[in-house]
Design brief:
Length: 171
Amino acid sequence: MTDWKCNLGCGPDVRDGWVNVDRAGFPALTVRANLAHAPYPFKDSSFDHVEARHLLEHLPDVVSAVEEIHRICKANATVYIEVPYWNSDDAHADPTHRHFFSEHSFDYFSEGRKWSSFNYYSKARFRVEKIDYKFNESPYVRWLPREFRRKLAKYVGNLVIAIGFHLRAVK
C-alpha cells in the first residue's frame, strides 16, 4: 500500500512521489491551486502525510487553512507545519506575512495543552507530537546552548528563526 503524501504550498520544492500543490506554475507541479481559498481540491481523508512549510503565515485565514489540512488528512495522518517564529526578523520582514506563530499556536487545535481551553474556534483536532526549533546559527549566538536559546527567544529576537510542528490528525 502506498502512502499518499501532500506538499502544500510547495513553491519550487517539487518532490517525486508527492502531490505537490502551489498557486504558481512551477515545472512538474501536480496541482495548481490557491490555498488561500477553501475547499482545497481534494476529497476528505485523502492523505497519510501532509506538509506545509512556510505557507500558513501567508494565508488570510489560518483557522480555515488548518481545518482544510485536517479535512484532507486520513485518521492518524502525520502533519508537519513549519512557520517563522514570532520573535524573528523572518516573521516580520516579509511584507506578505500576515500571521505570527509561537510554540503554543497549535494548542488551539488540540487537547490537554497550555491554551487548549480556547480550542472552541475550530473542531479540527491534532495531537502535537513534537516541536522543532530552527536556531540562528550566527557565530555571535551559536555558542549558547540550544535549550537556553529556546527559552531566551521569548525575550530576545532572532535566536529562533522558525518553528516546526509535528502533528497527528485526530478524527
